[in-house]
Amino acid sequence: MTDKKSSLSDVRERIDSIDQQIQQLISERAGWAQEVARVKGEGLSAIDYYRPEREAHVLRMVVDRNNGPLTDVEMVRLFREIMSSCLAQEDPLKVGFLGPEGTFSEQAVRKHFGHAAYGLPLGSIEEVFQEVAAGHADFGVVPVENSGQGMIQVTLDMFLTSKATICGEVELRVHQCLHSLNGKLEGIKRVYAHAQSLQQCKTWLRINLPGVECVAVSSNAEAARLARHADDVAAIAGETAGRVYGLKTVANGIEDRADNTTRFLVIGRSLFPASGNDRTSLLITVNDKPGALYHVLKPFAEHGISLNRIESRPAHSGKWQYAFFIDVSGHINDGPLQAAMKEMGDAAAQVRVLGSYPVALP
Ligand SMILES: O=C(O)C(=O)C[C@]1(C(=O)O)C=C[C@@H](O)C=C1
């Protein structure tokens, strides 16, 4: 017993000494980050100091160096928070997201920008684009795709009219829970959730709550907010939203697919340099000619550029006209991508580079 106690205090002494070193090094790092800011120019706002390509590079080195026991996800999270605090020494970044507090979009904001950024909960995805365009938010984080449900059309359509650029992507594993006031499955007559979440949990709902009324609302956090008012209603939302709105968890992990993941885009007003492992998003409209799309895509294949994604949406330019959202590997300033864009020539009626940004980190 005495031995165990003394060995525990020995171990704690080691931990205390390591913490002291970590703290000292974090302070030293923060000092150097201030120095970087001085080099960039004093008195600028947070957005002028923010360098997503540098952050991605730093975090990739963290992953490369990681030998455990902490996972890459944990290590990246810790270093992201350190960088977030270093950057916020100047003035925190303002990041708009689909609110209210507790949404998966807010989790994506925290995963990408850390907790030192200032989160701005907004009423809709459209509002996130508007607030970024108006300069009220430095960046916005919007969902664009779910691994099981596909593309989020409202987000894609916003790029048809907005001038927003894409500055980053975030992948978030989405674990859905059923929450209610009393935490009981019996007696639930109505379930509130975002339409996407109802889709993600369709099988679970059919088996466990057959015939129950499902009501789609603007966000999962809004669903949780509504479920606070009565015992016979429940909400599908993340763990955080359930906690924020004082609900009890009836069941967790109720998503039909175990790998349920949502991809978010970071939107902003400018383009950033290459990070070394980037993706480029293009918005292309083609002329109504035989083989037009083929001629748009051929140069990518010829220059060995991977096509990650292609999605078509009705264009606003006229009936039966389509806009193609195309994601390719690489940065817009890379030689092969420049050459492919040039060769695409007249095959495309319009080409807009939505952004080149670092591929999502763990
Ligand atoms: O290297 C820079 O440009 C910095 O400003 C430093 C730093 C960091 O803490 O590492 C901070 C903020 C930037 O977004 C990128 C990196």
Detailed description of the structure:
With 362 residues, this protein is of the alpha/beta class. The chain folds into 4 domains: 74 residues, Chorismate Mutase Domain, subunit A, CATH 1.20.59; 89 residues, D-Maltodextrin-Binding Protein, domain 2, CATH 3.40.190.10; 76 residues, D-Maltodextrin-Binding Protein, domain 2 (3-Layer(aba) Sandwich); 81 residues, Alpha-Beta Plaits (2-Layer Sandwich), CATH 3.30.70.260. Helix content is 41%, strand content 27%. Strands 1, 2, 3, 4, 5 and 11 form a 6-stranded mixed sheet that branches. It has a 5-stranded mixed sheet with strand order 8-7-9-6-10. Strands 13-14-12-15 form a 4-stranded antiparallel sheet. Helix 1 packs across helix 4 and helix 3 runs antiparallel to helix 4. It is globular, with a radius of gyration of 23 Å. It starts with a helix and ends with a strand. The mean pLDDT is 93. The site of prephenic acid has 11 residues, from helix 1, helix 3 and helix 4. It is found in: Cytoplasm. GO terms for molecular function: chorismate mutase activity; prephenate dehydratase activity. One of its GO terms (cellular component) is cytoplasm. Its main location: cytoplasm.
